[in-house]
Automatic annotation (TrEMBL):
Family matches, as SUPFAM superfamilies: Glyceraldehyde-3-phosphate dehydrogenase-like, C-terminal domain, NAD(P)-binding Rossmann-fold domains
Protein name from the UniProt record: Putative dehydrogenase
Any Pfam family: GFO_IDH_MocA
Alphabetized InterPro entries for the sequence: Gfo/Idh/MocA-like_OxRdtase_N, Gfo/Idh/MocA_Oxidoreductase, GFO_IDH_MocA-like_dom, NAD(P)-bd_dom_sf
Originating species: Nonomuraea fuscirosea
Gfo/Idh/MocA-like oxidoreductase N-terminal domain segment(s): 3-120
Residue span, GFO/IDH/MocA-like oxidoreductase domain: 145-237
GO molecular function: nucleotide binding
PANTHER family: D-GLUCOSIDE 3-DEHYDROGENASE (PTHR43249:SF1), UDP-N-ACETYL-2-AMINO-2-DEOXY-D-GLUCURONATE OXIDASE (PTHR43249)
Amino acid sequence: MTRVGIVGAGNVAARHADVLSGFPDVTIAGIADTDPHRAEALASKHGSPAYGGHADLLSAGGLDAVYVCVPPFAHGNPEHDVLSCNLPLFVEKPLSLDLQTAEKIATEIERRSLPSAVGHHWRYLDIVEQARDLLSGRPVRLALGHWLDKVPPVGWWLKREMSGGQIVEQAVHVLDLARLLVGEVEMVHAVPAGDSVDGEVDRATSAVMRFAGGASGLLATSCLLTRKHRVGLEVCAEGIALELSETRLLVDGERAIEDDGRAKTRVDREFINAVQGRAADVRVPYGEALRTHRVALALARSATERRPVTLHD
């Protein structure tokens, strides 16, 4: 039985807990949150002990792996403390608010040769695999990404220093998909709307991206709406246009293919397989997620500094 600890007890942590509790070879050994009432509520649902912080969870011992599902501003110490215990690590995106924190974590994971994964579950959509097959031999020349949505109902999200902004906190899913289907990003230039409030996230941003393979990309984000309006990625290659969302692939604007809805289960199952030393299809280990995170942070920097930003490996 694989014993998993979870740091964080918010909505995303609860989703992972629900999935993990459905695996017959996994038990949730403890849940930690700085809000003891929230930790207790989620822990009691899964018959697990609750802890007031990740240090107490780790001190209790008996863990085989740890999920870190905390807000963007809280990344860093939990990951380093988990790694100091030599435990495999699953981290929910975004990785951090600054690049240095994520780079140090990636270096430590590599040094210890530990299994890792990041919650870019879109990589596990079965329609993404179908899109890759359809694009085989046809390089993408144009990518159009969208995240047009509402403000999430958490108090920290609108504060730039806590969430990192919409591109970092939400649209990073679209950026990760673009890297998979189009390739690495070389340059970004983001332009925010002119009505931003000091200290708050930009309510709308548009950006141009140049890919290493020569493709051009556009990204549009907004949190001005009252509901999720449009989230996904469109790509154009020779003789084909694909539009992907989290639930559907549209081919040439005519043929719709529905996703099987199991991506959020697959991302957890494959990480657990890796922890158990079994054959595992971990599609986004921490180091791979870091490459996407660099793009997101470059876009955020470009929007703040009002200039193009070039990415360097």
